[in-house]
Design brief:
29% of the residues lie in helices and 23% in strands. With 555 residues, the chain is α+β, with helices and mostly antiparallel strands. Strands 14, 18, 22, 23, 24, 25, 26 and 27 form an 8-stranded mixed sheet that branches. Strands 1-6-5-4-2-3 form a 6-stranded mixed sheet, covered by helices on one side. Strands 12-13-11-17-16 form a 5-stranded antiparallel sheet. Helix 10 crosses helix 14 and helix 12 packs antiparallel against helix 13 (290-299). The chain is elongated and about 105 Å long. The N and C termini lie far apart (84 Å). Residues 88-98 have a biased composition (Basic and acidic residues).
Length: 555
Protein backbone atom coordinates (compact mmCIF):
# COMPACT_ATOMS: atom_id res chain seq x y z
CA UNK A 1 0.00 0.00 0.00
CA UNK A 2 2.90 2.36 0.92
CA UNK A 3 4.68 1.60 -2.38
CA UNK A 4 1.56 2.39 -4.37
CA UNK A 5 1.20 5.66 -2.49
CA UNK A 6 4.76 6.69 -3.29
CA UNK A 7 4.33 5.71 -6.93
CA UNK A 8 1.23 7.79 -7.29
CA UNK A 9 2.17 11.00 -5.54
CA UNK A 10 4.31 12.47 -8.41
CA UNK A 11 1.44 11.82 -10.83
CA UNK A 12 -0.90 13.77 -8.55
CA UNK A 13 1.53 16.64 -8.25
CA UNK A 14 1.92 16.78 -12.03
CA UNK A 15 -1.85 16.89 -12.47
CA UNK A 16 -2.18 19.75 -9.99
CA UNK A 17 0.50 21.74 -11.80
CA UNK A 18 -1.23 21.19 -15.16
CA UNK A 19 -4.60 22.31 -13.76
CA UNK A 20 -3.21 25.46 -12.15
CA UNK A 21 -1.42 26.30 -15.39
CA UNK A 22 -4.67 25.84 -17.31
CA UNK A 23 -6.44 28.17 -14.89
CA UNK A 24 -3.69 30.80 -15.24
CA UNK A 25 -3.84 30.74 -19.06
CA UNK A 26 -7.57 31.35 -18.92
CA UNK A 27 -8.58 27.79 -19.85
CA UNK A 28 -11.87 28.03 -17.93
CA UNK A 29 -13.47 25.34 -20.05
CA UNK A 30 -10.71 22.85 -19.26
CA UNK A 31 -10.96 23.63 -15.56
CA UNK A 32 -14.73 23.15 -15.63
CA UNK A 33 -14.43 19.79 -17.38
CA UNK A 34 -11.72 18.55 -15.06
CA UNK A 35 -13.33 19.26 -11.67
CA UNK A 36 -11.04 19.64 -8.64
CA UNK A 37 -10.55 16.54 -6.54
CA UNK A 38 -11.68 16.19 -2.94
CA UNK A 39 -8.21 17.10 -1.68
CA UNK A 40 -7.93 20.28 -3.74
CA UNK A 41 -9.23 22.70 -1.15
CA UNK A 42 -7.52 25.74 -2.63
CA UNK A 43 -9.16 25.31 -6.03
CA UNK A 44 -12.51 24.42 -4.45
CA UNK A 45 -12.42 27.80 -2.72
CA UNK A 46 -11.65 29.64 -5.97
CA UNK A 47 -14.71 28.07 -7.65
CA UNK A 48 -17.06 29.00 -4.79
CA UNK A 49 -18.60 31.88 -6.74
CA UNK A 50 -19.95 29.42 -9.33
CA UNK A 51 -22.74 26.93 -8.74
CA UNK A 52 -20.57 24.13 -7.34
CA UNK A 53 -23.14 21.70 -6.07
CA UNK A 54 -24.54 18.32 -6.77
CA UNK A 55 -27.96 17.76 -8.23
CA UNK A 56 -30.75 18.99 -5.94
CA UNK A 57 -32.58 15.67 -6.16
CA UNK A 58 -29.69 13.82 -4.50
CA UNK A 59 -29.81 16.24 -1.60
CA UNK A 60 -33.59 15.85 -1.24
CA UNK A 61 -33.18 12.08 -1.04
CA UNK A 62 -30.66 12.52 1.73
CA UNK A 63 -27.41 11.96 -0.22
CA UNK A 64 -24.40 11.94 2.13
CA UNK A 65 -22.53 15.23 2.32
CA UNK A 66 -18.78 15.67 2.61
CA UNK A 67 -17.03 12.29 2.65
CA UNK A 68 -18.85 9.65 0.68
CA UNK A 69 -18.03 6.90 3.13
CA UNK A 70 -17.72 8.87 6.38
CA UNK A 71 -13.94 8.32 6.80
CA UNK A 72 -11.21 10.94 7.28
CA UNK A 73 -9.79 12.58 4.15
CA UNK A 74 -6.23 11.29 4.78
CA UNK A 75 -7.42 7.66 4.54
CA UNK A 76 -9.32 8.39 1.34
CA UNK A 77 -6.24 9.82 -0.30
CA UNK A 78 -4.38 6.61 0.48
CA UNK A 79 -6.82 4.55 -1.60
CA UNK A 80 -6.13 3.65 -5.21
CA UNK A 81 -8.55 5.45 -7.49
CA UNK A 82 -9.70 3.41 -10.43
CA UNK A 83 -9.36 6.15 -13.01
CA UNK A 84 -10.22 9.79 -13.29
CA UNK A 85 -13.80 9.25 -14.51
CA UNK A 86 -14.91 7.53 -11.30
CA UNK A 87 -13.11 10.16 -9.23
CA UNK A 88 -14.92 12.97 -11.04
CA UNK A 89 -18.28 11.26 -10.50
CA UNK A 90 -17.71 10.99 -6.75
CA UNK A 91 -16.22 14.44 -6.24
CA UNK A 92 -19.55 16.33 -6.07
CA UNK A 93 -20.76 13.96 -3.35
CA UNK A 94 -17.72 14.46 -1.17
CA UNK A 95 -17.42 18.21 -1.37
CA UNK A 96 -19.42 19.97 1.37
CA UNK A 97 -22.35 22.00 0.07
CA UNK A 98 -21.67 25.72 0.43
CA UNK A 99 -24.16 28.30 -0.78
CA UNK A 100 -23.29 31.96 -0.45
CA UNK A 101 -25.87 34.12 1.30
CA UNK A 102 -26.17 37.68 -0.03
CA UNK A 103 -28.43 40.61 0.78
CA UNK A 104 -27.68 42.67 -2.32
CA UNK A 105 -28.91 41.12 -5.55
CA UNK A 106 -28.89 43.34 -8.67
CA UNK A 107 -31.83 41.43 -10.18
CA UNK A 108 -34.44 42.01 -7.46
CA UNK A 109 -36.07 44.76 -9.52
CA UNK A 110 -36.91 42.17 -12.23
CA UNK A 111 -39.31 40.32 -9.88
CA UNK A 112 -42.84 40.65 -11.33
CA UNK A 113 -45.54 40.05 -8.71
CA UNK A 114 -48.33 40.47 -11.27
CA UNK A 115 -47.54 37.11 -12.91
CA UNK A 116 -47.05 35.08 -9.74
CA UNK A 117 -49.73 32.45 -9.15
CA UNK A 118 -49.10 29.74 -6.56
CA UNK A 119 -52.59 28.18 -6.80
CA UNK A 120 -51.61 25.62 -9.42
CA UNK A 121 -49.95 22.27 -8.83
CA UNK A 122 -46.26 22.46 -7.97
CA UNK A 123 -44.99 20.64 -11.08
CA UNK A 124 -42.05 21.51 -13.33
CA UNK A 125 -43.46 22.92 -16.60
CA UNK A 126 -40.93 20.88 -18.63
CA UNK A 127 -40.29 17.58 -16.83
CA UNK A 128 -43.69 17.46 -15.01
CA UNK A 129 -41.86 16.31 -11.89
CA UNK A 130 -42.95 17.52 -8.46
CA UNK A 131 -39.51 17.05 -6.86
CA UNK A 132 -37.54 20.17 -6.02
CA UNK A 133 -39.63 22.67 -7.99
CA UNK A 134 -38.66 26.34 -8.23
CA UNK A 135 -40.84 29.22 -9.43
CA UNK A 136 -39.25 31.86 -11.63
CA UNK A 137 -40.18 35.18 -9.98
CA UNK A 138 -39.83 37.02 -13.31
CA UNK A 139 -42.25 35.03 -15.50
CA UNK A 140 -44.07 32.89 -12.89
CA UNK A 141 -43.32 29.51 -14.51
CA UNK A 142 -42.25 26.45 -12.52
CA UNK A 143 -38.94 24.68 -13.19
CA UNK A 144 -37.11 21.80 -11.53
CA UNK A 145 -33.79 21.89 -9.68
CA UNK A 146 -31.01 24.46 -9.76
CA UNK A 147 -27.99 22.30 -10.60
CA UNK A 148 -25.88 22.88 -13.74
CA UNK A 149 -28.08 20.72 -15.99
CA UNK A 150 -31.43 21.50 -14.39
CA UNK A 151 -34.38 23.15 -16.15
CA UNK A 152 -34.32 26.21 -13.87
CA UNK A 153 -30.58 26.77 -14.57
CA UNK A 154 -31.17 26.45 -18.34
CA UNK A 155 -34.13 28.86 -18.15
CA UNK A 156 -32.00 31.42 -16.29
CA UNK A 157 -29.45 31.39 -19.13
CA UNK A 158 -31.90 31.25 -22.04
CA UNK A 159 -34.46 33.80 -20.82
CA UNK A 160 -32.19 35.96 -18.65
CA UNK A 161 -34.48 35.47 -15.64
CA UNK A 162 -32.35 35.22 -12.52
CA UNK A 163 -34.54 35.11 -9.38
CA UNK A 164 -36.11 31.77 -8.32
CA UNK A 165 -37.94 30.61 -5.18
CA UNK A 166 -37.99 27.03 -3.92
CA UNK A 167 -41.69 26.17 -3.51
CA UNK A 168 -41.05 23.94 -0.48
CA UNK A 169 -38.30 25.60 1.53
CA UNK A 170 -39.32 29.16 0.43
CA UNK A 171 -35.64 30.07 -0.06
CA UNK A 172 -34.86 32.50 -2.91
CA UNK A 173 -31.82 31.97 -5.17
CA UNK A 174 -30.12 33.87 -7.96
CA UNK A 175 -29.23 31.67 -10.95
CA UNK A 176 -26.88 30.95 -12.66
CA UNK A 177 -24.66 32.46 -9.92
CA UNK A 178 -26.15 30.11 -7.34
CA UNK A 179 -26.18 32.34 -4.26
CA UNK A 180 -29.12 32.59 -1.85
CA UNK A 181 -30.85 35.97 -1.55
CA UNK A 182 -31.80 37.17 1.92
CA UNK A 183 -33.90 40.27 1.41
CA UNK A 184 -36.93 41.37 3.50
CA UNK A 185 -38.71 42.72 0.41
CA UNK A 186 -39.45 39.10 -0.62
CA UNK A 187 -41.47 38.32 2.52
CA UNK A 188 -44.79 39.22 0.85
CA UNK A 189 -44.13 36.56 -1.83
CA UNK A 190 -43.43 33.95 0.86
CA UNK A 191 -46.72 34.87 2.58
CA UNK A 192 -48.69 34.39 -0.65
CA UNK A 193 -46.92 31.07 -1.35
CA UNK A 194 -47.73 29.75 2.12
CA UNK A 195 -50.17 31.91 4.14
CA UNK A 196 -49.69 31.69 7.92
CA UNK A 197 -52.01 32.55 10.78
CA UNK A 198 -51.18 32.99 14.46
CA UNK A 199 -53.76 31.74 16.95
CA UNK A 200 -54.41 35.33 18.08
CA UNK A 201 -55.19 36.36 14.48
CA UNK A 202 -57.62 33.47 14.08
CA UNK A 203 -59.59 34.52 17.19
CA UNK A 204 -60.26 38.04 15.89
CA UNK A 205 -60.91 37.04 12.26
CA UNK A 206 -64.68 37.51 12.51
CA UNK A 207 -64.26 41.02 13.93
CA UNK A 208 -62.21 42.26 10.98
CA UNK A 209 -64.13 44.75 8.82
CA UNK A 210 -61.12 45.92 6.82
CA UNK A 211 -60.93 45.44 3.05
CA UNK A 212 -57.69 44.31 1.41
CA UNK A 213 -56.23 45.64 -1.82
CA UNK A 214 -55.00 43.37 -4.60
CA UNK A 215 -52.06 44.24 -6.89
CA UNK A 216 -54.37 45.33 -9.72
CA UNK A 217 -55.96 47.93 -7.40
CA UNK A 218 -59.21 46.03 -6.80
CA UNK A 219 -60.50 45.59 -3.25
CA UNK A 220 -61.56 42.31 -1.70
CA UNK A 221 -62.74 41.05 1.67
CA UNK A 222 -60.63 38.25 3.19
CA UNK A 223 -62.89 35.19 3.38
CA UNK A 224 -65.20 36.63 0.70
CA UNK A 225 -63.04 35.96 -2.36
CA UNK A 226 -64.29 34.45 -5.60
CA UNK A 227 -63.27 30.91 -6.57
CA UNK A 228 -62.24 30.09 -10.11
CA UNK A 229 -64.58 27.73 -12.01
CA UNK A 230 -62.05 25.51 -13.74
CA UNK A 231 -64.69 23.66 -15.81
CA UNK A 232 -68.12 22.91 -14.41
CA UNK A 233 -66.76 22.89 -10.86
CA UNK A 234 -69.32 25.33 -9.43
CA UNK A 235 -70.70 22.48 -7.26
CA UNK A 236 -67.29 22.38 -5.49
CA UNK A 237 -67.08 26.18 -5.21
CA UNK A 238 -70.47 26.59 -3.49
CA UNK A 239 -69.65 23.77 -1.06
CA UNK A 240 -66.29 25.33 -0.12
CA UNK A 241 -67.81 28.81 0.29
CA UNK A 242 -70.50 27.36 2.59
CA UNK A 243 -67.99 25.45 4.73
CA UNK A 244 -65.85 28.59 5.11
CA UNK A 245 -68.67 30.07 7.24
CA UNK A 246 -68.39 27.30 9.86
CA UNK A 247 -66.21 29.10 12.43
CA UNK A 248 -64.77 26.09 14.38
CA UNK A 249 -64.05 24.19 11.13
CA UNK A 250 -62.35 27.22 9.57
CA UNK A 251 -60.29 27.95 12.71
CA UNK A 252 -59.19 24.30 12.85
CA UNK A 253 -57.91 24.32 9.25
CA UNK A 254 -56.22 27.76 9.47
CA UNK A 255 -53.54 26.27 11.77
CA UNK A 256 -51.71 23.34 10.09
CA UNK A 257 -50.42 21.94 13.44
CA UNK A 258 -54.01 20.81 14.17
CA UNK A 259 -53.95 18.21 11.38
CA UNK A 260 -50.26 17.49 10.81
CA UNK A 261 -50.85 13.90 12.06
CA UNK A 262 -52.99 13.23 8.96
CA UNK A 263 -51.21 11.85 5.90
CA UNK A 264 -54.13 12.55 3.56
CA UNK A 265 -53.36 15.01 0.70
CA UNK A 266 -57.08 15.95 0.67
CA UNK A 267 -56.90 17.24 4.27
CA UNK A 268 -53.76 19.30 3.60
CA UNK A 269 -55.07 20.73 0.31
CA UNK A 270 -58.32 21.73 2.04
CA UNK A 271 -56.28 23.44 4.76
CA UNK A 272 -54.18 25.30 2.17
CA UNK A 273 -57.33 26.46 0.37
CA UNK A 274 -58.86 27.67 3.66
CA UNK A 275 -55.73 29.71 4.46
CA UNK A 276 -55.66 31.24 0.96
CA UNK A 277 -59.34 32.27 1.12
CA UNK A 278 -58.90 33.99 4.50
CA UNK A 279 -55.48 35.52 3.80
CA UNK A 280 -55.44 39.33 3.87
CA UNK A 281 -52.25 39.81 1.80
CA UNK A 282 -53.10 38.04 -1.46
CA UNK A 283 -51.82 39.43 -4.77
CA UNK A 284 -55.26 39.01 -6.35
CA UNK A 285 -58.84 39.00 -5.16
CA UNK A 286 -59.67 35.42 -6.12
CA UNK A 287 -58.38 31.92 -5.48
CA UNK A 288 -58.13 28.94 -7.83
CA UNK A 289 -58.96 25.62 -6.08
CA UNK A 290 -56.85 23.66 -8.58
CA UNK A 291 -54.76 21.60 -6.17
CA UNK A 292 -57.80 20.83 -4.00
CA UNK A 293 -59.72 19.57 -7.06
CA UNK A 294 -56.83 17.29 -8.02
CA UNK A 295 -56.85 15.84 -4.49
CA UNK A 296 -60.66 15.39 -4.70
CA UNK A 297 -60.38 13.54 -8.02
CA UNK A 298 -57.75 11.20 -6.60
CA UNK A 299 -59.48 10.59 -3.24
CA UNK A 300 -62.94 10.03 -4.81
CA UNK A 301 -61.49 7.81 -7.57
CA UNK A 302 -62.90 10.24 -10.18
CA UNK A 303 -66.44 10.16 -8.81
CA UNK A 304 -66.12 13.96 -8.75
CA UNK A 305 -63.95 15.45 -11.47
CA UNK A 306 -63.19 18.62 -13.40
CA UNK A 307 -65.46 19.04 -16.42
CA UNK A 308 -68.36 16.92 -15.10
CA UNK A 309 -71.23 18.64 -13.29
CA UNK A 310 -72.12 16.95 -9.98
CA UNK A 311 -74.55 17.46 -7.13
CA UNK A 312 -73.31 19.67 -4.24
CA UNK A 313 -75.35 17.59 -1.74
CA UNK A 314 -73.55 14.42 -2.80
CA UNK A 315 -70.22 16.23 -2.79
CA UNK A 316 -70.83 17.75 0.66
CA UNK A 317 -71.76 14.34 2.07
CA UNK A 318 -68.69 12.66 0.53
CA UNK A 319 -66.33 15.46 1.60
CA UNK A 320 -67.50 15.56 5.24
CA UNK A 321 -67.32 11.78 5.62
CA UNK A 322 -63.90 11.56 3.94
CA UNK A 323 -62.43 14.41 5.99
CA UNK A 324 -63.77 12.78 9.15
CA UNK A 325 -62.22 9.40 8.26
CA UNK A 326 -58.83 11.03 7.58
CA UNK A 327 -58.88 13.26 10.68
CA UNK A 328 -60.15 10.99 13.44
CA UNK A 329 -57.51 10.15 16.00
CA UNK A 330 -58.58 6.50 16.43
CA UNK A 331 -61.39 4.20 15.34
CA UNK A 332 -62.51 3.68 18.95
CA UNK A 333 -62.99 7.36 19.72
CA UNK A 334 -64.40 8.13 16.25
CA UNK A 335 -64.30 11.88 16.91
CA UNK A 336 -63.16 14.71 14.67
CA UNK A 337 -63.85 18.40 14.07
CA UNK A 338 -66.39 17.32 11.40
CA UNK A 339 -68.50 15.27 13.84
CA UNK A 340 -68.14 17.96 16.55
CA UNK A 341 -69.71 20.52 14.18
CA UNK A 342 -72.30 18.58 12.18
CA UNK A 343 -73.29 15.34 13.86
CA UNK A 344 -76.76 14.98 15.35
CA UNK A 345 -78.85 11.92 16.15
CA UNK A 346 -82.23 10.61 14.99
CA UNK A 347 -84.58 8.04 16.46
CA UNK A 348 -85.98 5.99 13.58
CA UNK A 349 -89.14 3.90 14.02
CA UNK A 350 -89.65 1.50 11.13
CA UNK A 351 -92.90 -0.40 10.57
CA UNK A 352 -92.41 -3.32 8.25
CA UNK A 353 -94.36 -6.45 7.29
CA UNK A 354 -93.06 -9.63 8.86
CA UNK A 355 -92.25 -11.26 5.48
CA UNK A 356 -89.79 -8.41 4.68
CA UNK A 357 -88.08 -8.66 8.07
CA UNK A 358 -85.76 -11.55 7.10
CA UNK A 359 -84.40 -9.57 4.13
CA UNK A 360 -83.65 -6.55 6.33
CA UNK A 361 -81.83 -8.64 8.92
CA UNK A 362 -79.65 -10.01 6.12
CA UNK A 363 -78.92 -6.41 5.07
CA UNK A 364 -77.44 -5.73 8.50
CA UNK A 365 -80.34 -3.92 10.17
CA UNK A 366 -80.43 -6.26 13.13
CA UNK A 367 -79.56 -4.96 16.59
CA UNK A 368 -82.47 -2.54 16.96
CA UNK A 369 -85.48 -2.94 19.28
CA UNK A 370 -88.19 -5.05 17.65
CA UNK A 371 -91.91 -5.18 18.59
CA UNK A 372 -94.55 -7.25 16.85
CA UNK A 373 -98.18 -6.11 16.50
CA UNK A 374 -101.28 -8.26 15.99
CA UNK A 375 -101.75 -7.47 12.27
CA UNK A 376 -98.40 -9.00 11.25
CA UNK A 377 -96.52 -5.69 11.28
CA UNK A 378 -93.14 -5.47 13.01
CA UNK A 379 -91.88 -2.20 14.56
CA UNK A 380 -88.12 -1.59 14.76
CA UNK A 381 -86.68 1.33 16.75
CA UNK A 382 -83.07 2.42 16.26
CA UNK A 383 -80.82 5.43 16.86
CA UNK A 384 -79.04 6.77 13.77
CA UNK A 385 -76.39 9.54 13.65
CA UNK A 386 -76.71 12.09 10.83
CA UNK A 387 -74.63 14.85 9.25
CA UNK A 388 -77.45 16.35 7.14
CA UNK A 389 -81.22 16.09 6.98
CA UNK A 390 -83.12 15.56 3.72
CA UNK A 391 -86.48 17.33 3.37
CA UNK A 392 -89.17 16.19 0.91
CA UNK A 393 -90.96 18.86 -1.14
CA UNK A 394 -94.68 18.51 -2.01
CA UNK A 395 -95.18 17.59 -5.69
CA UNK A 396 -95.88 20.56 -7.99
CA UNK A 397 -99.41 20.87 -9.55
CA UNK A 398 -99.88 19.12 -12.87
CA UNK A 399 -102.32 21.62 -14.36
CA UNK A 400 -101.87 25.17 -15.54
CA UNK A 401 -103.88 28.08 -14.18
CA UNK A 402 -106.28 30.31 -16.12
CA UNK A 403 -103.38 32.38 -17.50
CA UNK A 404 -101.91 29.18 -19.07
CA UNK A 405 -98.93 29.40 -16.75
CA UNK A 406 -97.68 26.79 -14.35
CA UNK A 407 -98.31 27.71 -10.75
CA UNK A 408 -95.13 27.70 -8.69
CA UNK A 409 -96.27 26.54 -5.25
CA UNK A 410 -94.79 27.81 -2.01
CA UNK A 411 -94.35 25.85 1.17
CA UNK A 412 -93.16 27.00 4.62
CA UNK A 413 -90.01 25.30 5.94
CA UNK A 414 -91.93 24.27 9.08
CA UNK A 415 -94.36 22.16 7.00
CA UNK A 416 -91.58 20.05 5.51
CA UNK A 417 -89.73 19.86 8.85
CA UNK A 418 -92.71 17.91 10.22
CA UNK A 419 -91.10 14.83 8.72
CA UNK A 420 -88.95 14.80 11.88
CA UNK A 421 -91.68 15.26 14.50
CA UNK A 422 -91.82 11.53 15.34
CA UNK A 423 -95.46 11.21 14.21
CA UNK A 424 -95.53 11.97 10.48
CA UNK A 425 -95.19 8.76 8.48
CA UNK A 426 -92.84 8.62 5.50
CA UNK A 427 -93.34 5.67 3.17
CA UNK A 428 -90.25 4.14 1.61
CA UNK A 429 -90.02 1.55 -1.14
CA UNK A 430 -86.34 0.60 -1.05
CA UNK A 431 -84.85 -1.75 0.13
CA UNK A 432 -88.33 -2.99 1.10
CA UNK A 433 -91.75 -1.38 1.57
CA UNK A 434 -91.88 0.20 5.03
CA UNK A 435 -93.40 3.07 6.98
CA UNK A 436 -90.84 5.29 8.72
CA UNK A 437 -91.12 7.84 11.52
CA UNK A 438 -88.18 10.10 12.43
CA UNK A 439 -87.52 12.14 15.57
CA UNK A 440 -84.50 14.32 16.31
CA UNK A 441 -83.00 13.33 19.68
CA UNK A 442 -79.75 15.32 19.50
CA UNK A 443 -79.29 18.63 17.67
CA UNK A 444 -75.95 19.48 16.01
CA UNK A 445 -74.14 22.82 16.38
CA UNK A 446 -74.44 23.32 12.62
CA UNK A 447 -77.48 21.82 10.91
CA UNK A 448 -77.35 21.06 7.18
CA UNK A 449 -80.74 20.77 5.46
CA UNK A 450 -81.21 19.82 1.84
CA UNK A 451 -84.43 20.00 -0.17
CA UNK A 452 -84.90 17.04 -2.48
CA UNK A 453 -85.58 19.01 -5.65
CA UNK A 454 -84.40 16.42 -8.17
CA UNK A 455 -86.14 13.11 -8.81
CA UNK A 456 -84.79 10.55 -11.26
CA UNK A 457 -86.89 8.05 -13.14
CA UNK A 458 -86.01 5.66 -15.97
CA UNK A 459 -86.14 8.40 -18.59
CA UNK A 460 -85.04 11.77 -17.23
CA UNK A 461 -84.38 13.94 -14.18
CA UNK A 462 -87.18 16.21 -12.98
CA UNK A 463 -86.75 19.36 -10.91
CA UNK A 464 -89.34 20.45 -8.38
CA UNK A 465 -89.69 24.27 -8.60
CA UNK A 466 -91.49 24.66 -5.24
CA UNK A 467 -90.29 27.68 -3.27
CA UNK A 468 -89.52 27.12 0.39
CA UNK A 469 -90.26 30.02 2.76
CA UNK A 470 -87.71 30.05 5.56
CA UNK A 471 -86.57 32.54 8.18
CA UNK A 472 -83.06 33.97 7.78
CA UNK A 473 -82.80 34.55 11.53
CA UNK A 474 -84.17 32.80 14.62
CA UNK A 475 -85.44 29.50 13.26
CA UNK A 476 -87.08 28.08 16.43
CA UNK A 477 -87.27 24.30 16.13
CA UNK A 478 -89.01 23.48 19.41
CA UNK A 479 -92.28 25.03 18.16
CA UNK A 480 -92.52 22.55 15.30
CA UNK A 481 -90.72 19.35 16.25
CA UNK A 482 -90.47 17.64 19.65
CA UNK A 483 -86.96 17.89 21.05
CA UNK A 484 -85.25 15.92 23.82
CA UNK A 485 -85.18 17.48 27.29
CA UNK A 486 -81.72 18.89 28.10
CA UNK A 487 -79.73 17.88 31.17
CA UNK A 488 -80.28 19.87 34.35
CA UNK A 489 -77.11 21.96 33.97
CA UNK A 490 -77.80 22.83 30.31
CA UNK A 491 -80.50 24.87 28.66
CA UNK A 492 -82.31 23.86 25.50
CA UNK A 493 -80.61 25.40 22.46
CA UNK A 494 -83.09 25.09 19.63
CA UNK A 495 -82.72 28.46 17.89
CA UNK A 496 -80.79 28.60 14.62
CA UNK A 497 -79.61 31.33 12.23
CA UNK A 498 -79.03 30.76 8.52
CA UNK A 499 -75.38 31.23 7.48
CA UNK A 500 -75.28 29.68 3.97
CA UNK A 501 -77.90 28.95 1.31
CA UNK A 502 -77.03 27.07 -1.91
CA UNK A 503 -79.32 27.67 -4.89
CA UNK A 504 -79.71 25.88 -8.24
CA UNK A 505 -80.66 27.90 -11.34
CA UNK A 506 -81.70 26.40 -14.65
CA UNK A 507 -82.84 23.00 -15.89
CA UNK A 508 -82.05 19.73 -14.11
CA UNK A 509 -78.81 18.16 -15.30
CA UNK A 510 -77.72 21.56 -16.60
CA UNK A 511 -77.91 24.95 -14.92
CA UNK A 512 -75.47 26.27 -12.35
CA UNK A 513 -75.12 26.70 -8.60
CA UNK A 514 -74.65 29.87 -6.56
CA UNK A 515 -74.57 30.49 -2.85
CA UNK A 516 -75.67 33.19 -0.42
CA UNK A 517 -73.39 33.50 2.60
CA UNK A 518 -73.38 35.72 5.66
CA UNK A 519 -70.37 37.76 6.73
CA UNK A 520 -70.20 37.62 10.52
CA UNK A 521 -68.38 40.91 11.20
CA UNK A 522 -71.08 43.05 9.56
CA UNK A 523 -73.97 40.57 9.43
CA UNK A 524 -74.22 41.40 5.72
CA UNK A 525 -75.22 38.90 3.02
CA UNK A 526 -73.21 38.23 -0.12
CA UNK A 527 -74.16 36.36 -3.26
CA UNK A 528 -71.28 34.29 -4.67
CA UNK A 529 -71.16 32.62 -8.05
CA UNK A 530 -67.65 31.45 -8.96
CA UNK A 531 -65.59 34.68 -9.33
CA UNK A 532 -68.53 37.06 -8.80
CA UNK A 533 -69.07 38.31 -5.25
CA UNK A 534 -71.81 40.92 -4.72
CA UNK A 535 -73.51 42.22 -1.60
CA UNK A 536 -77.23 41.48 -1.44
CA UNK A 537 -80.26 42.01 0.81
CA UNK A 538 -81.40 39.33 3.30
CA UNK A 539 -84.85 39.47 1.65
CA UNK A 540 -83.30 38.27 -1.64
CA UNK A 541 -81.92 35.19 0.12
CA UNK A 542 -85.42 34.07 1.11
CA UNK A 543 -86.76 34.40 -2.48
CA UNK A 544 -84.37 31.87 -4.02
CA UNK A 545 -84.96 28.19 -4.85
CA UNK A 546 -83.03 26.84 -1.87
CA UNK A 547 -81.31 23.51 -2.44
CA UNK A 548 -79.03 23.15 0.59
CA UNK A 549 -78.82 25.28 3.73
CA UNK A 550 -76.53 25.48 6.75
CA UNK A 551 -77.93 26.81 10.05
CA UNK A 552 -75.85 27.82 13.07
CA UNK A 553 -77.08 27.12 16.60
CA UNK A 554 -77.45 30.08 18.98
CA UNK A 555 -74.85 30.10 21.74
Amino acid sequence: MGADEEGQSPARKREREEESAAADEGGAAAAAEKRPRAGDESEGASLLGLANYADEEEEERGAPRGHANGRPREEEEEEDDEGEEEDERRAPERRPRQVELRRDCPYLDTVNRQVLDFDFEKFCSISLSNLNVYACLVCGKYYQGRGLKSHAYTHSLEAGHHVFINLQTEKVYCLPDGYEINDPSLEDIRHVLNPRFAREQVKILDKNKQWSRALDGSNYLPGMVGLNNIKETDFVNVTIQSLMRITPLRNFFLIPENYQHSKSPLVHRFGELTRKIWHARNFKGQVSPHEFLQAVMKASEKKFQIGVQSDPVEFMSWLLNTLHAKLRSSKKKNRSIIYDCFQGELEVVKEIHRKHLVDDEQNGEAGSQVETTSDGMVTQTSRVPFLMLGLDLPPPPLFKDAMEKNIIPQVPLFNILKKFDGETVTEVVRPSIARMRYRVIRLPKYMILHMRRFTKNNFFVEKNPTLVNFPVKNLELKDYIPLPKPKESEKLRSKYDLIANIVHDGKPGEGCYRVFVQRKSEEAWYEMQDLHVTETLPQMVALSEAYMQIYEQHE
